[in-house]
Design a protein that fits this description.
By secondary structure, the protein is mostly helical. The chain is 78% helix and 0% strand.
């Protein structure tokens, strides 16, 4: 269950990172509220995961999911650069996440 909580925390991190783009520097009320709620939910699930997963592993996986997911959404929805090198480096993040999961005692 801890890894499911961590996965949920990572997906919520992607959600708040993307929604942050729409806050216009925290000047738009609805996107700002949504972003804050997604942040709180992400931290909540991260805290649940930390009951069983070591902090170093959990934090690295959480930020890795956030970075990977946000970068992919940026390429798909916001026309951010998408080239072989970016894809390869995002693949390295994915490999790192998988490696941390595979070598975790839980």
């Amino acid at each position: 269950m801890a890894w499911i909580n961590l996965l949920m925390a990572g997906f919520l991190e992607v959600g708040w990172a993307v929604s942050l783009k729409f806050t216009d520097g925290w000047t738009r009320v609805i996107p700002s509220i949504l972003t804050a709620l997604l942040m709180a939910a992400s931290f909540y699930f991260l805290a649940l995961a930390l009951r069983a997963i070591p902090i170093g592993t959990a934090y690295a996986v959480w930020t890795g999911i956030g970075a990977l997911g946000t970068a992919v959404i940026g390429m798909l929805l916001f026309q951010e650069p998408c080239n072989a090198a970016r894809i390869a480096f995002l693949g390295l993040i994915l490999i790192g996440i998988a490696g941390l999961k595979a070598t975790s005692p839980h």
